[in-house]
Amino acid sequence: MLKRENVSLSVIRRLPRYHRFLADLMRTGTTRISSKELSRRMGLTASQIRQDLNCFGGFGQQGYGYNVEQLHREIGLILGLDKQYPAILVGAGNIGRAIALNFDFSQMGFDLIGIFDIDPSIIGMQIGSLKVEDAAGIDAFCREHHPRVAVLTVPRSAAEQMAEQLIHLGVSGFWNFSHYDFSVKYPGVLVENVHLSDSLMTLCYMVRDLSEKETRDN
Amino acid sequence: MLKRENVSLSVIRRLPRYHRFLADLMRTGTTRISSKELSRRMGLTASQIRQDLNCFGGFGQQGYGYNVEQLHREIGLILGLDKQYPAILVGAGNIGRAIALNFDFSQMGFDLIGIFDIDPSIIGMQIGSLKVEDAAGIDAFCREHHPRVAVLTVPRSAAEQMAEQLIHLGVSGFWNFSHYDFSVKYPGVLVENVHLSDSLMTLCYMVRDLSEKETRDN
DNA sequence: TAGATTGTTAATCGATTAACAATC
DNA sequence: TAGATTGTTAATCGATTAACAATC
């Protein structure tokens, strides 16, 4: 897993999906798989799978295919799931709590070490193994524990100011659930925007589009 | 808004973002905007914005630009946000509850009319204006109310069976939060997959990649 | 009218697919 | 060895960007 250097984002975004399908295969006891068979299951082309994997090295063997367990492990290493970077979550409302409770951050390369909110009725609440802390203490916390990444589950109105504060405190990656779109403003900062409403609106378009076609066809 | 027909998914996925930025502009009282200025704010090219919009019609005026309010409204119509289609949510765990509580479905083209779960300790729980119903009653409910779309927030193990059941009951669109990847298996069914763990893993890759570069540079 | 900015066509770029020699 | 399947190069396709005439 050495060949990389400027691998395109389209390829990177497919890696977690490969990882997931390979985990499924392991669960069902499959030990080897060809790019052709994997492409059939994932709805891709075999060519694309081979191209994608060869950005990082030759994990397969001619005439045999890929070893499922090995490939799963290699992709995990490429994604960086083997080490845990410290992360904090800011905004312990419904979405924030759901994420803190539902995600095993340690399986995804992170260690969730702090949860913050400004609402006195939420501060002190136990969420999994962590207790919600007062957001006023974020500065001190960051200076001590140096989180690399922040999950931003605050309302839109608080997002901009909080993002800037965290960037100054050394946070360089954001998993952003707020409606605030800050990828443009701070170059160099890594942002993975999760605009759930954008996703739902896209589905809305597709559903409308389908019913229009059905109407025309009848 | 008549020109469409096979507009690419890449374009569609940008529409909700335009919609959001235009809403922001309205909020700050801006009444007109050029593709150039909008491109600067959104981090796109002006060319792309004009190309995107012209898939659906000429909303601008030479020498003037676009009327913010009109463009916002037109994009809303293109996305289909003006009518509400009935939707249900299946799986009222942490994520399901957070979504039901946080999203104003009516603003995104849907009307959330039912929430279901199988867990007796959750059934009957009040979530916003709805009460969680027993999933055993989904068949009867669908035959009566004909939801077009289902939000799938069930665990992976329950997802496949539930998806098939709902497809048979006439549900044709899914907002899928489960780890189950069913876009491949049921052609014709519209699926918007929200694989949050894929998103977090992508961020993991980016953060690792950045620190490797920093290490090299020093 | 002059300046600005669109709508649209043409050029470029990047990503996907196809093909095939290498090789297990 | 023969068959299968990779790694990789070349061809195709689609999406983005640039250019510019039309026009408000």
Describe the structure.
2 copies of one chain form a homodimer. By secondary structure, the first copy, chain A, is an alpha/beta fold. Helix content of chain A is 45%, strand content 18%. Chain A has 8 helices and 10 strands. Chain A has helices spanning 9-27, 35-42, 46-53, 68-79, 94-102, 138-145, 156-168, 196-217; strands at 32-33, 60-61, 65-67, 85-90, 110-117, 126-127, 130-134, 149-152, 173-176, 190-193. In chain A, the strands form 2 sheets. In chain A, strands 6-7-5-4-8-9-10 form a 7-stranded mixed sheet. The interface between A and B is large, with 61 and 60 residues. Chain A binds a DNA duplex (24 and 24 nucleotides) through α3 and β2.
Topology:
The structure is a homodimer of 218-residue chains.
Chain A lengths: L8 H19 L4 E2 L1 H8 L3 H8 L6 E2 L3 E3 H12 L5 E6 L3 H9 L7 E8 L8 E2 L2 E5 L3 H8 L3 E4 L3 H13 L4 E4 L13 E4 L2 H22 L1
Parallel strand pairs in A: 4-5, 4-8, 5-7, 8-9, 9-10
Antiparallel strand pairs in A: 1-3, 2-3, 6-7
Helix pairs in contact in A: 1-4, 2-3
Chain A binds a DNA duplex (24 and 24 nucleotides) through helix 3 and strand 2.
Largest interface: A-B, 61 and 60 residues
Order of SSEs of chain A, N→C? HEHHEEHEHEEEHEHEEH
How many extended strands of chain A? Answer: 10
Helix content of chain A: 40-55%
Which class best fits the helix and strand makeup of chain A?
A: alpha/beta
CATH topology of the largest domain in chain A: Rossmann fold
Mean pLDDT of chain A: 94
GO biological process, one term (chains A, B): negative regulation of DNA-templated transcription
Binding site for NAD(+) (chains A, B): 91-96
GO molecular function, one term (chains A, B): DNA-binding transcription factor activity
Family (chains A, B): Belongs to the transcriptional regulatory Rex family.
